[in-house]
Write a structure and sequence with these properties.
Blueprint: H1 2-12, E1 29-39, E2 42-52, E3 61-67, H2 75-86, E4 90-95, H3 117-128, E5 133-143, H4 145-152, H5 156-163, E6 170-174, E7 197-202, H6 212-218, H7 222-225, E8 228-233, E9 247-250, H8 254-257, E10 261-264, H9 268-285
Parallel strand pairs: 3-4, 3-5, 5-6, 6-7, 7-8
Antiparallel strand pairs: 1-2, 2-4, 9-10
Helix pairs in contact: 2-9, 3-5
InterPro entries: AB_hydrolase_fold, Dienelactn_hydro, FrsA_esterase
Keywords: Hydrolase
Domain Dienelactone hydrolase: 58-283
């Protein structure tokens, strides 16, 4: 009886009665934005979600462009976006499929990654001209298809072709199908811009051999190798940070180009570790 009375009394008082100060979570400013992009002979309207953390209105802040996988925008990007926003980094996640009327997946995406390089640099130009963004501290992070874009955007060849004077300050590529850069000429990963590149890979990725990403880096010229690091997550499959039900897809790029099935499976341990790695990497490179 006495215990019940005590609990009742405690529940009857609100936090203010005890002199407790409750701080409400400050959500970032969120804007749905559009930007023009020239893709081949087409002029497209690219849409995205720009999130700018609160409390930094008197200064320019860093930003990260987020590039989705073949499936399109899903839960993957948001895992990192929220963590980056919390430490004062703005984010822009763009929808590369919506502008083209595509549904995504290996059966309904552009024929080549290169078709969306224009999207990547259009978004960089957009961020560079925002009053709240520091144009010298804009990074890019992509997943699978977006990871390949992240890799190619770190090369002078494609940065010059699509970006003109604009360059990313840092790159993180998640499971970017590493075998392709040593085999397909159009994917040549060389003559880098000098911005740091982090490749995050799963040891059980069905697109690559377990050592494909490390072999890629080991084969770089010393002038390029100095800018690139690899982080492996043992036991992690492709799209380990897509925290949605396991999904088996068929892709011609799978199994080191032989094609076939690939399992996309969430791994919460690897997702947590890679999220922390992303935040640390960008904070370090942006000198925050």
């Amino acid at each position: 009886m006495r215990l019940t009375l005590v609990l009742f009394l405690l529940m009857s008082f609100n936090a203010a009665a005890f002199g407790l100060k409750i701080e409400r979570k400050q959500l970032p400013y969120t804007n749905l934005v559009t930007m023009p992009v020239q893709s081949g002979e087409q002029t497209l309207t690219l849409a995205g979600e720009l999130r700018v953390p609160r409390g930094y209105e008197e200064q320019k802040i860093p930003a990260v462009l987020v590039l989705h996988n073949s499936a399109g925008i899903d839960s993957t990007g948001r895992l990192y976006i929220e963590a980056l926003n919390k430490v004062g980094i703005a984010t822009l996640e763009i929808d590369m499929w919506g502008a083209r009327g595509l549904s995504g997946g290996s059966g309904d995406r552009p024929e080549t990654v290169h078709e969306t390089l224009a999207d990547t640099f259009a978004a960089l130009k957009f961020l560079s001209n925002r009053s709240e963004i520091d144009p010298d501290k804009i990074g890019v992070m992509g997943f699978s298809w977006g990871g390949a874009l992240t890799m190619l955007s770190a090369t002078e060849q494609y940065a010059s072709m699509f970006g003109g004077e604009y360059r990313f300050a840092a790159h993180i590529a998640h499971y970017p199908v590493c075998w392709a850069y040593s085999v397909i000429p159009e994917f040549a990963f060389e003559n880098l811009t000098g911005a740091p590149v982090l490749i995050q890979a799963g040891q059980l990725d069905g697109y690559d051999a377990p050592d494909s990403c490390q072999n890629l880096v080991d084969g770089l010229q010393p002038s390029d190798k100095q800018y690139v690091d690899v982080k492996y997550y043992w036991g992690a499959q492709h799209a380990w940070d897509r925290l949605e039900p396991k999904w088996v897809v068929v892709d011609p790029f799978a199994n080191q180009g032989a094609g076939g099935e690939v399992t996309l499976a969430p791994n919460r341990w690897a997702a947590w570790k890679s999220r922390n790695k992303v935040v640390y990497f960008f904070k370090d490179k942006f000198e925050m």
